[in-house]
Amino acid sequence: MSSMTFKIKQAEPKSKNVTISFDAQKFERIAGNFGFFNQDFLESLNRAEKDIKAGRVQKIKSLAFLRK
């Protein structure tokens, strides 16, 4: 398994925004290890994009919303 170093910076002390940076080549290696270049995964992304365009996806603010 590959390893990768992340640099995380918070925009402002009380901000909810963060910036994450990492090396692109190492990211590709990690993505390959997780199977992100697997044909089944890529096909599932295409299906997800079609669902979004067709309006079959709803936005939620919290995972707790799914428990209702």
List keywords for this structure.
2 helices, alpha+beta, two-stranded antiparallel ribbon, 68 residues
Characterize the structure shown.
By secondary structure, the chain is of the alpha+beta class. It has a domain at 24-57. Helix content is 40%, strand content 12%. The chain is built from two helices and two strands. The protein has helices at residues 24-34, 39-54; strands at residues 7-10, 18-21. A two-stranded antiparallel ribbon has the order 1-2. β1 (7-10) and β2 (18-21) form a beta hairpin. The longest helix is centred in the last third of the chain and has 16 residues, at 39-54.
Topology:
Blueprint: E1 7-10, E2 18-21, H1 24-34, H2 39-54
Antiparallel strand pairs: 1-2
Give a quick summary of the entry.
The protein is α+β, with helices and mostly antiparallel strands. It has helices spanning 24-34, 39-54; strands at 7-10, 18-21. The protein has a domain at 24-57.
Gross morphology is flat
Question: Helix coverage percent of residues?
Answer: 25-40%
Low-confidence stretches: none
Number of helices: 2
